[in-house]
Amino acid sequence: MKVSGKTIQYNSAEFKTIFEHLFPSMCVLASRILKSEDKGKDIAQEAFVKLWRKDTEEFTDQKALQAYLYVLVKNACISELRKEAKHKSTILEEGLTISQQAFLNEILREETYKLLHIAIKELSPQAENVVKLTLQGYQNQDIANELNVTVNTVKTVKKRAYKALRTKLGNQFIAILLTNFFDFF
Amino acid sequence: MDEIKSQIEYSELLAAKVLGSLTEDQKKELEAFEKKLHHQKLVHEILDADAFEKWTQKIDGVDTEKEWSSFLVKMEQKPEKRSRVVVMRAVKWTAAAAAIFLVGFVLFSVFQTSGIDQGYESVENANIQPGSSHAELVLSDGEVVDLETESKDKISQGTVTAENINGTLQYSDIEKKSAIEVKKNTLRVPRGAEYQLVLSDGTKVWLNAETELTYPVSFTGGKRRVELKGEAYFDVAPDEEVPFVVTSRNQEVTVLGTEFNISAYEADNTITTTLVEGKVKVNADESDVAEYLVPDQQVVFNTNTAFMEKSNVDVYPYIAWKEGRFVFNNVTLEQFLSKVARWYDVEVIFNDDSIKNIRFTGDLPRYNNMTSILKIIETEMSVHIQIKDNKKVYVSDK
């Protein structure tokens, strides 16, 4: 397989990094749709195996690879839902499938959480608290009051978390890929 | 695909929003995104502490190390796929990449040798199942749909629907020849499989193992054009005004309504077109030189020289695959086994070159276990056959 013009073997350290980065969210996403963690795991595994059976096996960048995996996961989820429906002998076509929009929404959720998760993991428990309070709808001033620090500290913690996220993703992938995966940052 | 990519990009904006690090431009981009239908609600649902907490628990529950190990195990169970990948690379790569290829090749050889400690099996003990009905459909946006005999799928693309029933994919267009942009689909049949297809004009196509057909979901314009790699039998729906054209590499076959077989595997340097009914024209692309075929005639086209050789043939051996038989009339053992290998998805290795050219004539069923066929070859042709992992067939002189 080639990503960004670089050849990768399935059993290489490079692919392991990609796997570690992408497998958990594919698994969680499929589990959420199928409401079963075992099935989610199977589908994510199957998607990674299928990825290597793709004939063209060239991806312009990691996002393209990620998008392709999501398509594999989506298709596998749909066939699984249909299979389940057959057993239950449902006739309704609705509910057997997941719409493209619903699936896209799940991807947005998955990717956003993944980034926040990385940002938190890299930093102190304080950063985790700041992120969690922000998600609870707290403004910077409220967070400062809650944690007994100044507003500027809150802002700095956020900026540091963001910077850490950028660096982390940058280091992880620049090493592997010739073009920067997260060149957006 | 592009939609998914843009979702990944929006997730970066959302993360930056939470971390108070949006630039002015990004802020505007995200605002525009949130203005779209339902998006505000969606963003609100995603940026929620409880939902995030739940997700964190789930993600921490995934044992990535363990999953990585089982992934490696799964990949190693499919060694034939790996070999195929390496071969394709060899073709694709230019001289500049030769060094990298060498590394890949060495890795590959290491895997190959490490597997050899398992023994060989005689024909009697082997169990090689025949091919089955399955294929992959590639939609115009790159989405891939797995097709299997037992699955019933209905795929809509514009006014065209494709229905998958009992190993046949059938297209139908509600508005005949809708003049809007034409979407192309590709039906991909792997080794060890076959599939049937009915195009939107009613043309029936039988696709043999390791075959790819690319076609518009609905035909517009003055010609019905499709592109073939591998082997297929066509029963073209008659339409005097709109010729049906099959392109295989640099050969074109033009027909009005007829039945014929084309074998155009990339591994061969010839393309064989065999006519059963009607009339077809065969020519090299960008060439005025053409051969016209009448029933029971065949053209063998050399893809290197564009030279065409026409002959009268018994068509049955060339189309028997579609009737569930292997029929061979005075072919070499090498030619015979290469056909059979595609259907049983095995690799054939000749230990002695001398036996490659033994001639063979026969009529055998296609849906049996491979063992019965190999037994016949072993006794009839005085060769010795050994099988490894039900995937590799070694043929040597007795």
From TrEMBL, chain A:
Annotated HTH luxR-type domain residues: 116-181
Keyword Cell membrane belongs to the record: no
GO-annotated molecular function: DNA binding; sigma factor activity
Cross-referenced SUPFAM superfamilies: Sigma2 domain of RNA polymerase sigma factors, Sigma3 and sigma4 domains of RNA polymerase sigma factors
Keyword vocabulary terms for this entry: Sigma factor, Transcription, Transcription regulation
Keyword rRNA processing (UniProt): no
PANTHER family referenced in this protein's UniProt entry, alphabetically: RNA POLYMERASE ECF-TYPE SIGMA FACTO (PTHR43133), RNA POLYMERASE SIGMA-70 FACTOR ECF SUBFAMILY (PTHR43133:SF46)
Family: Belongs to the sigma-70 factor family. ECF subfamily.
The protein, known as: RNA polymerase sigma-70 factor, ECF subfamily
Organism: Zhouia amylolytica
From TrEMBL, chain B:
UniProt cross-references to InterPro entries, sorted A to Z: FecR, FecR_C, Ferrdict_sens_TM
Transmembrane segments: 90-111
Keyword line: Membrane, Transmembrane, Transmembrane helix
Keyword Cell membrane: no
Recorded GO MF terms: sigma factor antagonist activity
Record-annotated FecR protein domain positions: 186-281
Matching Pfam families: FecR, FecR_C
Coiled-coil region: none
Name of the protein described by the UniProt record: FecR family protein
Source organism of the structure: Zhouia amylolytica
Organism phylogeny: Bacteria, Pseudomonadati, Bacteroidota, Flavobacteriia, Flavobacteriales
